[in-house]
Amino acid sequence: MPDRDLTRVIALTPDGPGARIRRIAANPDGSARNLYGLDGDFTAGPVTRVFATTPDDIPPARPPARRLRVFHVNDMHTHICDLAGDAPPVQRLAQMVERVNAARSAAAPDEAVLFLSAGDDHTGTVLDELVGWTASDFTLDPGYRALSAAGLDVAAIGNHEFDRGAAQLTLGLRDAAFPLLSANVHSSAHLIPGQHYFPALIAEVNGLRVGIIGLTTRVETRVGQASDPTLQVASPVAALTNILPLVDQLADVVIVLSHCGYGDGSHLSGKAAVARDIGEADFALAETAGRLASKPTVIIGAHTHTRLNEHGLDPQNIRHGIPITQAEANGKFLGEIGIDTATGRITARLHAIPDDPTLGDKTFADTHIAPIIAQVTRRMQDVIGTAVGQDLTWQANRRDRYCRECALANFMNDALVSELAACDENRAELAFLNGGSILSGLSPGPVSFGQWFDVMPYSDEVFIVEASGADLYAILQSNARRLLRAEEIGQTDLGGFVARGFLHTSGALRYRIAPGATAAEARATDITLFGQPIAVQLDRRLPIAMTTYLALGSFGERWTGDPLSGGIPGDLPGYDLRKLPRRNTGLIYRNLLVDHIRRHGRIAARCDGRLTLDG
């Protein structure tokens, strides 16, 4: 057993630069009664000194528990419950609470229990509308409020925590009774380290010191937005290299909450039907931890929505001696890890959360989930218009969004251009939308706000990007290469996320794609803009409306100039949308389209030939 006297590691008198440790508030409904936050800059280099202000800020020496049980979730995306029209909701979090509380109640004297989230607790259901976009329309943070009541002990910061801006995230923290962690997020104008989050902490649970480090993906986090221009995400591998040796000295067990993704460089399983760029991720983190850690260490992963260790710890998920876990996404599973601190033996498994509305802790659901549902139900059921025809259904969208013209994408692009036409300062002549931004469809008949939310659940603002006719020509050539080809369709889950960034356009732009024998040979031809050949408009300047996600390069979908991803062979260069002048209008994409539907009453669109395919 390691030395329990941390006064050899922690100094009470500051002596040069280093990290600070101090006792912080713990969730009163959680297991960790004593939490000690580490505050310092771990992005610039290793930190070897740690200082406390008072002896109370040093985790006490107590006989440690021998066994640790860790329950974990990731990528909940506000699926604390699943709402389906008038049917009773599936109480996902209430089912988890039942299991976690049973483990806490039955814990042996030498056993400690923790409940953790690896991030992305936002963006995915209509409940997110309660978060709002500004301080004036913030109501509550449903994910953080419910997880607090569930007794969550600690959460990592995921990339989707920044979807509505860091300022809005700080408002949501009012509902978080647990601390947030990230060792590589820095320089936000709103989210302040040591105040709103910590790089890492020590949780003292039944005498056991558990070091917990948070890491955030740098690939898909929205940096450079006008509302927080200085926000940055450093290398997660570098941050772990700098912080792990210190945490290892302070803890009996180390947990890395990694919202960086399963794999390294690219990822094939989970929410991507084909390979997706994830940058530095869990495999590289495991290599780093395996080299630096002396205590039992585990990575609890997230971001790629990967189902790992469903029936027990899979040997292929142990890399460099470090087990990697992940519990898919959207509350479908609750992960469990067991650690024997004496032997270092680690076990892992997943508990399925059934789609059964009769299951779960009813008292918890009635007390904590029902009031949240009540606040959003009226808006969710509000009818905003009527869908006309079969071309808007999910069956049609699944078939079309990655490989041909898509009627619903046509409607969305044309509606956006129409809404912006009345705003001189935000006028757009064209609109682009990537196929992966459409996540559902509409059956003929009345359409509620909740149904439209399911179509476009992402929290995007509208950017205006200025391009020339020559830029547009180059963009369409890149788009032709991104097409999901005929020979690939039967091998691809069209209902999943295909990381190619294939774009749909508004009606003023018409063209043909000649797929060729390979993606490298694909070409956009017969391009016309407002009825005239693009060749005579190469110098024309065009304001183009698009989502936040696309204007920032669409990350793993590679509108960043990097080689195309999504299983496209040959390292074909992509087009970098980020090099074009752009500005954030501050307008909310979904809200603009809802206003358009309300005014016109109908959602009617068809494939009109703006994109045709040879063969």
TrEMBL record:
<dbReference type="InterPro" id="IPR006179">
    <property type="entry name" value="5_nucleotidase/apyrase"/>
</dbReference>
<feature type="domain" description="5'-Nucleotidase C-terminal">
    <location>
        <begin position="384"/>
        <end position="554"/>
    </location>
</feature>
<protein>
    <submittedName>
        <fullName>5'-nucleotidase C-terminal domain-containing protein</fullName>
    </submittedName>
</protein>
<comment type="similarity">
    <text>Belongs to the 5'-nucleotidase family.</text>
</comment>
<keyword id="KW-0732">Signal</keyword>
<dbReference type="InterPro" id="IPR036907">
    <property type="entry name" value="5'-Nucleotdase_C_sf"/>
</dbReference>
<feature type="domain" description="Calcineurin-like phosphoesterase">
    <location>
        <begin position="68"/>
        <end position="306"/>
    </location>
</feature>
<dbReference type="Pfam" id="PF00149">
    <property type="entry name" value="Metallophos"/>
</dbReference>
<dbReference type="InterPro" id="IPR008334">
    <property type="entry name" value="5'-Nucleotdase_C"/>
</dbReference>
<dbReference type="Pfam" id="PF02872">
    <property type="entry name" value="5_nucleotid_C"/>
</dbReference>
<dbReference type="InterPro" id="IPR029052">
    <property type="entry name" value="Metallo-depent_PP-like"/>
</dbReference>
<keyword id="KW-0547">Nucleotide-binding</keyword>
<dbReference type="InterPro" id="IPR004843">
    <property type="entry name" value="Calcineurin-like_PHP"/>
</dbReference>
<keyword id="KW-0378">Hydrolase</keyword>
